[in-house]
Amino acid sequence: MPSATSPASATEWVASLSPWPEEFGLERMQALLERLGDPQNAYRAIHVVGTNGKSTATRSIAELLRKEGLRAGAYTSPHVAGWHERLDCDPASFEGAVARIRDAAQELDATQFEALTAAALLEFAEQQVDVAVVEAGLGGRLDATNVVDAEVVLLTNVGLEHTEVLGKTREEIAREKLAVAHAARIVVRSDNTFDHLVPGDPELVGGGAREAAGAFLGTTIEHDVEAALPGRLEHRGGEIWDGAHTPEAVDWLLARIPVHDYALCVSILGDKRVDELLQRLDRAGSTFVATRSSNPRALPTKELAERARAHFSEVEAVANPHKALARARATGRPVLVTGSLYLLADLYA
């Protein structure tokens, strides 16, 4: 129960938790789920791993399955519009889901992501879903979500990310991500580059979200759905907000937006491929407003601005995200907000 010094609401409590474990592993997550009655065993599962596009794919799979008459839960991260976005529910339902796991999570000193994952898995059991579509957080093998025995796994793509944890090469990173396929009967992937890393002997299928949903159902799905997630190629009153945080994601974004001389409002986490991101982003415009999201891993504003000067003719440093956005708007140019989903979450707040 909340103490006199702990946050009163469950949402405030989970927001106060550390997002990073001292050491990655599944032991605490498994112990937490055991205390909760192992809710992850109450339904079938689809696991989504990869570098870019995981959240959109997760929501799309769930929506496709709902259109086929199934009760589907979706768990994604991080959020933009609010914590409830992660469980694809309303704020009140999110509060209740986190409250149910709070005592057990506190007793085990669970991390923020472990608590959120447990809340999602228990909520899906409470809702008696037919299938849970679960997005991995970081990597796969040691990620807190690797407690579901997913029968279908979707690998969206593989880029260089979190190399200090996942490995220095795309192959090493792919191995970590594909480790979640330990119980899979089907693995869906965009190409066959890493087929030799798939554990066991599942069927291998080419494609994305639609093919993953079809693989789960054992049929072909002809139609697509719109996931419409906040901060993913989101058009807001003439502005474009997108959380592209890898060079590959920026390439994808720029191929899908009108060609303009944008004023960019940008924050980037320090563990990302910063200079490669800036090199890609300079194709979008000549004005760069550097800022810093509330994520502790975000680059300091002045450092980001200094590194951007090699790529943009006009660079400003505005530490407050809301003021940075206002400065970008004041240029009179179309505005592109990008570099981090955490920046978008700050601007939504």
Q: Can you lay out the helices and strands and say which pair or pack?
A:
Blueprint: H1 10-16, H2 27-35, E1 44-49, H3 54-67, E2 72-75, H4 91-107, H5 112-126, E3 131-135, E4 152-155, H6 163-166, H7 170-178, E5 186-189, E6 203-206, H8 209-217, E7 234-236, E8 239-241, H9 247-254, E9 263-266, H10 274-281, E10 287-290, H11 301-308, E11 314-317, H12 321-330, E12 335-338, H13 341-348
Short description:
With 349 residues, the chain is of the alpha/beta class. 36% of the residues lie in helices and 14% in strands.
Structure description:
The model has no long low-confidence stretch (mean pLDDT 95). The chain has 13 helices and twelve strands. It has helices spanning 10-16, 27-35, 54-67, 91-107, 112-126, 163-166, 170-178, 209-217, 247-254, 274-281, 301-308, 321-330, 341-348; strands at residues 44-49, 72-75, 131-135, 152-155, 186-189, 203-206, 234-236, 239-241, 263-266, 287-290, 314-317, 335-338. The radius of gyration is 20 Å and the shape is globular. The chain is of the alpha/beta class and 349 residues long. The strands form two sheets. It has a six-stranded parallel sheet with strand order 2-3-1-4-5-6, sandwiched between helices. Strands 7-8-12-9-10-11 form a six-stranded mixed sheet.
